[in-house]
Each structure stands twice: as structure tokens, then as C-alpha cells.
Amino acid sequence: MEISGKIKEVREISSNWKKQGLSVALVPTMGYLHAGHISLIEKARKENDKVIVSIFVNPIQFGPNEDYEKYPRDMDHDAEACKNAGADLIFAPEPNEMYPSANLAHVNIDQLGDGLCGARRPGHFSGVCTVITKLFNIVSPDRAYFGQKDAQQLAIIKKMTGDLNFTTEIVPCRIVREADGLAMSSRNMYLSPEERSAAVILSKSLAMAKQMMEDKESDPERIKEAVINKIESEPLARIDYVEIVDAETLKQTEHINTPVLTAIAVYIGRTRLIDNFTFKGE
Amino acid sequence: MEISGKIKEVREISSNWKKQGLSVALVPTMGYLHAGHISLIEKARKENDKVIVSIFVNPIQFGPNEDYEKYPRDMDHDAEACKNAGADLIFAPEPNEMYPSANLAHVNIDQLGDGLCGARRPGHFSGVCTVITKLFNIVSPDRAYFGQKDAQQLAIIKKMTGDLNFTTEIVPCRIVREADGLAMSSRNMYLSPEERSAAVILSKSLAMAKQMMEDKESDPERIKEAVINKIESEPLARIDYVEIVDAETLKQTEHINTPVLTAIAVYIGRTRLIDNFTFKGE
What we know:
The structure is a homodimer. Chain A is of the alpha/beta class. The first copy, chain A, has helices at 7-19, 35-47, 75-85, 95-98, 116-120, 124-139, 151-163, 193-198, 200-214, 220-232; strands spanning 2-4, 24-29, 50-55, 89-91, 105-109, 143-147, 169-173, 237-246, 260-268, 271-279.
């Protein structure tokens, strides 16, 4: 496995692979890899000839009061994990390699970025779309792998890829969870032991919502209310949002009869965690 | 020469050329080709193995009160002109091929799009950047050819291409003029014979500004004033803007000592025309 921080080098390696007729996968990450990331790499490994993992904590997708500086980084661990999962190349650029001068060009998304995390994190999805555009242009991957934990991000990147005529196929990957149900996240490392126990309230409240839908509750307001009550029963939890939206348009839904995304963001102490599930109906 | 309106087909043709090791040029146009466009195609012809001309009146770069509907179109003439200039392929998609559903992803540019035409045409450069991104993703050109008449567009596309890590080289091409100095433009066809005579005021006023700079006038305000007076001496002319800016940043300049762009937009009757020149100093 190779590691490179240089755009030119990674472009050449990927381009040479493609010239040989090999399929190339990209797994874009911000590093500090956990079992969720590993599942993406392993899926990419199975479905492609070559797998590139990008590790880049992208400054332009963090707000001024967010955790860019303290976002966890551990390149030695990540390199080992990528190697074990079968990656062929890690692309780990420095910020000034990706943004050598003021980055004036941005990729934005209408509508899909307005609600949920987009409403709480202004500029976040523009930063995500911009860096993914850059990575796609550097690597020209045949397929790119994204976790369903970031459901809004996934919907946005799918739409962006189509709208801008990228040829990359966007492959969604299932949420990987801890034994007690907590969705894997690099930010879980911020949690104290007490907070870690409390954090299970996210997946528990979603499991309850799912059960209500399976029991034919079709009023999203009732389900949201139950989820809110459940989360508020946990003293360390503070709700950022609880939303039930159309799974494709991400617009508010008044009746549960199409695939719906139930997405939540909850602070556990000072750590903001997200989780979601999609209910496809019958 | 082939003509196709289908993204998939054009992508395949271009991709096959590139697999054979041939260099591919893109000349993006809105059709109604004049000698200015032809000069781009001929330059592309000399410098590349294959030349693709796109002909697409891009709806999203027109404002609601602009001339999208009446913008001139003449595919038969354009096909003949492309063939004579040595193009290998025309890509002429219908609007619903380029925008099959609501286009939610947009490419925007900060700063460079704020002044000049960008200030008068909100959303225009976002529409341009978005369609150029789409065309680059469809054709993957080695080089793309743009006229210097659209100086702000050229500066923006250069910056966008770098910021988003496209590999396409942006090739600027000189303004082609009528015998009396009027810059070639598809919009010149809107002019009545009387307006056509009056329109020479654009190039004349710029020639005067250039002479002032060569005569060491270094105060942009004095030059702007002279240009404004000159244009206002023409009864059919109405100034939209007269600006002297840094040629790279497009920011106002207070002293002429770096390459500066003098750019003007002038209504002749109801037709808005633009022209410009770049003064590099000594």
C-alpha cells in the first residue's frame, strides 16, 4: 500500500490504473478510522480492482465554532487499518495542498442542504460538495463509497454527482453499530464513560420510531413527539433536531406513505452525534 | 464531422479518442457562430488531435428579464461553419438533456463574480460555472478555448478550473473584431443599421483609454472619465458600466502599475454589448 500527500502523484497513479483497464474506488474519509469506515473500504475492495482511501480533515466543511482543530487524527493507526482492509493507496494531503490559495470556487446545493444538519451547520454541505468535487477530479473514481450514517450528505452527493454529470457511481453503505446500538463515529471518542452510556439513547429512540412505523403509525408528528420524549428522558442528552422527511427530497412529510428518513442530531454533553434510519414502508 | 445531442454518446466518443492517446479540445459556445468562434475552433484544431464544439444556449446563465428566448439560433449555419473550421464533433444537447430534473447543484465563485457583469447579471456566472463543469465532466477535454471578449468569464473559469482540480487547460483567445473595430458577438445581429454604426463607440473609447495608458496616464479615474465622456457623446449609447480593475483579481485598482483590465458594457438601443482590453504596462 502506498501513501501520498500529493495531488499530482495520486492523479497519475489512478490514471495509470484506469489506463490499464482497472476499476478504481474512492473511499473519502476524514481519518480516525473506525469499523464503519473499514466496512466501506472492505466493500470497495470486493467491488473494484483498486481502492484509494482519502484521509483529509476538510477545513471548509467546519463552521467557525466547530471542532476542526480538535477533530481526532491518528495517521499511524489509519495507515495500519487501511492496509489491513486491503486499500491500495492512501491520499492524505495537507490543507495547503488542497487549498493552495483562497478557494473561490464552491459547489453548492439547493433545497437538499436547507434542513437537518444543513440548517444547523451553515456552509457545511458546500464544503463537503466542494471537496468531493475536488477528490473526484483528482482520482476520477469509478465508484465512491459513503456511509448511510451521514444520510443528508449521501442524498446531496448523489444529487450533485448526477447534476454535474460526474461518472462516478455513488455506493451507499449500511451504518455500522457498536454492540449496544450506538452508530460508529470518530466523534464517539469525545465521550466520557458516562456520556458513552447515555449516547445509546439515539439508537434506542430510533428503534422505537421504527417500531411505531411498523405498527402502522402514519402520523410523523406523533412519532417525532415520542422520539423527543424518549431522548429527553436521558439527562445528558440535548436535542439538536428530530426530523422525519421524504428520503429523496429531504422535505417534511405529513404522512408516512413513501420511503421516509428519520434523522436525529443530539448533543451528549458537548458532543454532537447523529443517527438515522430509512423506512421504506411495505 | 459528427453531431450529437446525447451526453452518453459524446462521452463515449471523447473517451474513446482519449483511450487512443488523442488530445481532445472543447470549444464551448452558445451557437450562432461568428468569426470570433471560428478563430477559437481553428486554434483548437491546430493544437489538438480532436475538436469538440458544444452548442448550447444555457438557460441557467440568463436572468429572468434577459434574452434567453430570443437569443439567436441557427444550427444549419453552425454545423457548416464548424465543419469548415475543422471540428470533429458538435455536441448540441436539448435543455432537458442537460437539465433532466431541477438542477440543485451549482458551482459558484466568490469575489471574481461580484463586479462588472456579475453585478449586473445576478446568477449569470453561477450558471456559466455550472454548465462548464458539466461540459468538462462530459467531455474531459485536455484543453478548452475561451474568448477574451468575455474577460470576466475567462478569469472566473481559470480560477474555477484550478480550485476544483480540473485537469483541463484553459486557453484564452484574442478578441476578433469587425473591420471598424466592433468586437464580434452573436448579439450584434440585434442591431439596426443605425445602431450598428453607433456600436463602434465601444472599441473607439477603449482605443482611447489604451492610448492614455501608453501615454503614462496612471490614474484610472481620469481614464474612466474620458471613456465615459466618449461613450456619452454617442446618442444611441447608454453606459452599463466602465471599470478598470486588476486583471487577475478583478478588484478596483487605484493606480495603473500592474496588468489591468479595462472592461465596459454599453447598451446600444436595447442591445447590451461588452468589450475590453488588458494593459500589461511595461
